[in-house]
């Protein structure tokens, strides 16, 4: 095995740190939209490298100007009477995330507080969120709704729900990210080119000998680019998340530790751009018509035929009413998104085109084939399958 010099080790460690910064841990319930070659308009579902029940490790776009947009629909069913910590749908997910299924009347939600990434009501767990900032915002929003008069609250819930399905809002947030990170993306691109030049200089591929002066000038420019990019990212953070001072401090400290961090900061700044915007709204904002149609197909199948059970067991009448109201309202918003992109609803629920001639039925959620005309799909919580002959 060849032994590496100190300088070679620095380049290897930097490359490893860069790769580390390009990995994203995606928790259950979260959908990652990843840009490739900086083109966010042709985002892809990202590549899963490994994972467990706590989440998936996925590879983000690898260029300094790529971005990862994370979308996590609100994990609560909201209604006039209260909130149920359960949503049947799990859009673009294999499994539903853990949910308590408990019911909370609006009066109780005055006590909603954030503790780390969790939101609790008194000492009862309501839900876990992607970040502490999102948890704090959700707790504040629930307290604000709990304090409203019932009629006013109903209107505000509907306005908040509409925001979650608003693709124009997603597009606006992404434009804001683009504005906030222009300097970061330019700085990071120059810095990565400068590092590449450093490797070439070291390997003797340039018509320059890496003597004392050249190295001093090289390092001076390297540090200027590193810290200027970190400064641009600090300003970008302040523009995007003005109230998150602690997050800003952490970002600055990390950026000073390693030059690989500012190289990926434009991406990192995009990962918390959205709060509870639904994946179909994000797809409507970013994807081509074909990609949108394929996302819509999976989202609608899952909304109509979610993983079983569709409701928590032992629901009170009030909680059942909340679940029903919330699911109907969500479905209307999904249908509106389809209408805007001129995608018809019914063909999305068409049976799969099976390649297995002996298949007798299929799962309406995940489209797996089954050999019996009446069976159950274990992957979808034992959902009954639909016979192909029923469409004949
Ligand atoms: Zn299934």
Report on the architecture of this protein.
The protein has 392 residues and is of the alpha+beta class. The protein has three domains: 166 residues, no CATH class; 85 residues, no CATH class; 37 residues. Helix content is 46%, strand content 16%. The protein contains twelve helices and 17 strands. A hairpin with a 5-residue loop joins β15 and β16. It is globular, with a radius of gyration of 24 Å. The site of zinc ion has 8 residues, from loops.
Entry summary:
With 392 residues, the protein is an alpha+beta fold. It has helices spanning 6-21, 132-146, 150-164, 167-180, 182-203, 212-240, 245-257, 260-263, 265-270, 279-286, 289-304, 317-340; strands at 23-26, 31-36, 39-45, 47-52, 55-59, 68-71, 77-78, 82-84, 103-105, 112-115, 118-121, 124-128, 361-362, 369-370, 376-377, 383-384, 386-387. It has three domains: 6-71 and 171-270, no CATH class; 77-161, no CATH class; 356-392.
Mean pLDDT: 90
Report the uncertain regions.
none
Order of helices and strands: HEEEEEEEEEEEEHHHHHHHHHHHEEEEE
Q: What quaternary form is this?
A: single chain
Number of beta strands: 17
Helix tally equals 12
> How much beta, percentage-wise?
15-25%
Shape: globular
Sequence of strands across the biggest β-sheet: 1-5-4
Number of domains: 3
Named once each, the bound ligands are: zinc ion
Percentage of residues assigned to helices: 40-55%
Return Rg in Å: 24 Å
Distance between the termini: 65 Å
Main sheet summary: 3 strands, antiparallel
Structural class: alpha+beta
């Amino acid at each position: 095995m060849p032994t590496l010099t100190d300088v070679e080790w620095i380049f290897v460690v930097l490359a490893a740190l860069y790769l580390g910064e390009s990995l994203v841990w995606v928790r259950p319930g979260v959908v990652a939209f990843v840009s490739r070659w900086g083109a966010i308009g042709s985002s892809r579902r990202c590549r899963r490298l490994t994972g467990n029940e706590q989440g998936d490790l996925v590879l983000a776009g690898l260029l300094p100007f790529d971005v990862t947009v994370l979308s996590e629909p609100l994990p609560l069913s909201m209604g006039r009477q209260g909130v149920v910590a359960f949503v049947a749908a799990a859009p673009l997910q294999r499994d539903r995330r853990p949910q308590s299924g408990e019911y909370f009347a609006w009066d109780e939600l005055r006590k909603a507080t954030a503790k780390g990434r969790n939101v609790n009501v008194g000492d009862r767990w309501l839900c876990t969120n992607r970040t502490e900032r999102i948890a704090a915002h959700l707790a504040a929003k629930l307290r604000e709704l709990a304090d409203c008069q019932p009629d006013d609250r109903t209107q505000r819930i509907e306005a908040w729900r509409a925001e979650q399905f608003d693709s124009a809002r997603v597009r606006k947030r992404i434009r804001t990210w683009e504005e906030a990170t222009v300097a970061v993306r330019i700085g990071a691109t120059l810095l990565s080119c400068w590092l590449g030049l450093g490797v070439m200089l070291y390997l003797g591929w340039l018509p320059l000998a890496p003597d004392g002066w050249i190295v001093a000038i090289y390092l001076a420019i390297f540090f200027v680019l590193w810290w200027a990019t970190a400064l641009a990212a600090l300003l970008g953070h302040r523009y995007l998340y003005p109230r998150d001072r602690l997050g800003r401090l952490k970002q600055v400290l990390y950026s000073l530790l390693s030059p690989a961090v500012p190289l990926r900061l434009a991406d990192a700044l995009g990962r918390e751009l959205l709060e509870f915007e639904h994946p179909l709204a994000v797809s409507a904002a970013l994807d081509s018509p074909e990609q949108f149609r394929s996302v819509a197909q999976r989202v609608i199948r899952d909304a109509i035929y979610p993983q079983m059970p569709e409701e928590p067991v032992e629901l009170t009448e009030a909680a059942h009413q909340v679940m029903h109201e919330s699911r109907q309202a969500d479905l209307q918003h999904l249908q509106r998104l389809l209408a805007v992109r001129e995608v018809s609803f019914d063909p999305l629920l068409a049976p799969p085109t099976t390649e297995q001639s002996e298949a007798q039925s299929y799962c309406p959620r995940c489209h797996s084939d089954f050999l019996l005309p009446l069976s159950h799909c274990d992957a979808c919580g034992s959902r009954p399958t639909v016979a192909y002959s029923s469409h004949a």
